[in-house]
Amino acid sequence: MTIKKKYSSLPFVILFILHSLLLLYAFYKKSKEDRRNMFLLLLSNIGIAYIFEYPILNVYRAYRYKPKILKNNLLDNVLGAVISQGIIVPFTAVFLTAFNFGKKGKILFSMYYFFIERLFVKLGIYKQYWWKTIYTPILIYCYFGISNLWYNQIKKGNSNVLAITHFFCVNVVSINFLFVLAIMKKIKFGFGKVSSWHEHFLIVPVYSILLSFLAVLSVKKGGFKPKIIIFLIDLLIDLLLWKLNILKVKLNALFFFLLRHVLTIYCAVFFRKLVYMGKGRV
């Protein structure tokens, strides 16, 4: 059983709407303080999902999504992964954590994803290479457990968890921003004049992690000078990649460089205040 091409995106859209409603309901039922912690948990969950997807999808190509939303197959594949692993699953994890679902609830939702994956395979909108469906409920169950632990540590003000949460928040915004520019065909990473999108998605996560780490570092002690220093280092990294023809920019190059790094440092400042609000640090 396969689904017609023009309807390939429909299951992704339905799941996105359904799980968005679950997330919105969870935020609606919680207090202002809980909502802040849940928002930080959401970005952390997305950050964890992106790290997981990098070796599984980008490097070892365990499976392929076919939502048929974008014309380019590889970009379409990554978009499908973002919707599934970067939105739908993290939304579910936050919902389960918010309402403190126990072991049975986590198992139920893990099996729900098992059947969703089998359905997607039958519909022809998801293809497995070396990945086995049985891996999915096992790993998702573990992921739900991590979400609970992470949320509790955020509420307790665990310094290590708060620091990593800060990084995740900045990195998620950075990766999504770069992905939007890639969809618009405004930037591309790769070696040589002609490079593949596969190369792009091998380089971009590493690039984003490095620059997000530097941005977080620049706001750690406060003050204006560290931000300027990191900003200049970021520009030098981009200029070097540009000169080596590893970074291809179709936007005005200076505009891209400035916008990219101003946004990242601003996010680092904003999320630091949000993460450490009420924790005695700013």
Any idea how many domains?
A: 2
What is the CA-based Rg, rounded? Answer: 20 Å
Number of strands: 4
Spatial separation of the terminal alpha carbons: 55 Å
Question: Averaged pLDDT, please?
Answer: 92
How many DSSP helices? 9
Question: Strands across the major sheet, in which order?
Answer: 1-2
Backbone structural class: mainly alpha
| Major sheet attributes | 2 strands, antiparallel
- The helix fraction, in percent, is over 70%
Strand content: under 5%
**Shape call:** flat
Q: Which stretches are poorly predicted, pLDDT < 50 over at least 5 residues?
A: none
Order of helices and strands: HHEHHEHHEHHEH
Transmembrane segments: 6-27, 39-57, 77-99, 134-151, 163-184, 196-216, 228-247, 253-271
Keywords: Membrane, Transmembrane, Transmembrane helix
Textual characterization of the structure:
This protein is mostly helical. It has two domains: 5-156, no CATH class; 187-275, no CATH class. Helix content is 73%, strand content 4%. The protein contains nine helices and four strands. It has helices at 10-29, 32-59, 73-98, 103-123, 135-156, 159-183, 197-218, 225-243, 253-275, and strands at 63-65, 126-128, 187-189, 247-249. A two-stranded antiparallel ribbon has the order 1-2. The radius of gyration is 20 Å and the shape is flat. The termini are far apart. The mean pLDDT is 92.
